[in-house]
Amino acid sequence: MVRLDRLINVLGGYGVRVAGHLGGRDAELHSVAMHDPATDSPSVGDALLTVGVPEPAHAVELGIAARSRVVLLRTGEPGTEDALALAKEHEICLLLVDPRVSWSQIASVVYGLVLEGRETEAGRGPSDLFTLADSIAIAVGAPVTIEDQLSRVMAYSSVQRDADPARLDTILGRRVPGPVRALFERRGVFTHLAASDEPLFVADAPDHGMRGRTVAAVRAGRELLGSVWIASETPLDAGRTRALADGAHTVALHLLRSRVSADLERQVEGELVIQLLEGTPDAAAVIGKLGLPPRKHRVIALQAHTSERNAAVLLAFERATTGFGWSRPGRTTLFGNTVYTLLPCDDDPAPAFGWISELARGLPGHVSLAVGIGAPADPGELPAGRKEADESLALHTTRTGTTPVCYDESWDEILLQRLRTAATVGRIPSRGPIAELARYDETHSARLLTTLHAWLEAQGDLATAAGRLGVHPNTVRYRLKKMTEIADLRLDDPRKRLAMLITLAIGDHTVSPQ
């Protein structure tokens, strides 16, 4: 939204001059329309760009049909008396654009001011979708909700008089309830939205707490961006139908500009996050640029999987970066096939688990997630936090289920995995007590290594080791004696015992009853 006075002041710097009717300079402009000579139906918008119209009087007539507050005409001639009189009669401000200024330049400025007249605290793009919903509600005389292609609520009009239960649940839950969405699916509403720009009346459904409503697709070219819903007991008349269709067109322009702005912010945000994850001497300054608090953060590493390659991780990345920067708790980047998020989080990992749950709820049901959560880290320690998150994520390859792996709870498994990795650097010893016992077990079908592993984990307690193995303590004692005859164990040496326990652990030896 922008006031007419500000629009006039800004356009004055582009060689635009006022030809007539300066009353109502405090008028608020919420929408933009562009004259299309190829269509008979007039566009509706507070600001009208009369592209291809040479006569001032014709431009004002189009502005009257479009219910505009300001009309822009590109001409080198002054406005005619009849055009100025007509503009004054209908309280339309006529602005004349210098022919040396292209329509593309003027359109860019007008769309930017009207649709992005109010910016977010982060300086990013449009935040006036709610005001646009109010404008559509005034034009059609009914409450409005604007939803994305997944039936999530993006904005709604401030007046929701006589809202039915289904509508209230949609607004409070920020998405269309499952049973209502299933009803729309059965009635072919989403099929219609995918194929047609014509508004569709949806009859009431008392069993679902829903009265009648009309919906129009929000589309950019062939891409469906979302929909605009109007509360209506009966089908809309021609005038309100046109107002809804034009409102949906304006919403599409708004969302496209928002997408461009979002893509730019994602790029900048992603580059800053990568700096922190890879290490930078200016970590505290980068944290400030991202708008994050100067405290400990956790690195969350996330991978998403579905039948279509790369689609799931892109969905997860878009979901993680949806919303204006200042309204999101973390900052995110996409690196390869992994989404990394920095989340302000101290010793309690609950906020990280909550963030992951919220992200998962916003994804389609067929998408599965694998998530690793690093330990709390100061800004300068975030590279270590990333490594911990990656290592936690890697544990999913040895686990069943999709429960997020947190470093705080899984550090022991991660340490053993590090030892396994380190062990692969050199050759595994072909001699020594473990190798000799392994050869004996293979030759004699014995269980000496299993017994040694149990005894070491029990810290030399025969009863505990025997309980784990399911044998009598004397059996453990006999096997230990047999081991000393086969190999030089030196069980009285703490360093030898630790080395053997590590070797057995990273070799993935398991204790089975025998």
Automatic annotation (TrEMBL):
It comes from the Bacteria. Pfam families: HTH_30. InterPro entries: CdaR-like_regulators, PucR_C-HTH_dom, PucR_C-HTH_sf. This is PucR C-terminal helix-turn-helix domain-containing protein. It comes from Prauserella marina.
